[in-house]
Give the backbone structure.
Amino acid sequence: MLTVNINSAGYDKKNIYLKNIKFKINKGEIVGLIGANGAGKSTTIKSIIGTINEFDGTIEIQTNLRFSYIPEEPIIYENLTLWEHLSLASSSYQLKDCVWIPKANELLQLFKLDDKKDAFPVNFSKGMKQKTLIVLSFMTQSDIYIIDEPFIGLDPIATKNLISLLILEKNRGASILMSTHVLDTAEKLCDRFILLSNGQILCEGTLSKVRNLSGQSKDSSLLDCFNYLLEGESNNE
């Protein structure tokens, strides 16, 4: 569904940060993009969606696939109500009213925003803005989702609902690349992991493979493996 081949990428010619980032996301798969602050997760995502200044490589998406992106920081239009945001998104994706309106109403109810249709999201709390972006994205029922830190700012119920939604979309056949620091949730949710460090892939694979590569036991958590691998890299520098 999505093939990423980043030879190098950065925000300007003097700050080329990513090197040799190569991976694929298959149909019906959730892949966790993990790493410490500054590891290159957001830079990788910006390279995929085409908003990075300096890029050498290729991003291949199968033809005629619908693509959605949820940024870490909510992007909201000041002069549009919540429903107008949804209507604008539906027009951008050329969705029929009979398709997007029922789905939008279902998601608004799920995330407790159904009484905010005529409100301006610019005045919402951080969590409510995040919920707005989730509704906007999943309303489209896309084939590929790129999600950057989706759990930050969400209350426990919204987090649970988002996890259920991600599983539902995966079972529908969607491909999901999710950057997150919430490793305990990622461990339960993701099929594979890509661990970045200093702009490069340090480790990639299923939890079982990550455990083997890190020399940890079969009961070790993703966090245990993450810490061990990063400490090992630091010792080798």
In short: The chain is about 40% helix and 25% strand.
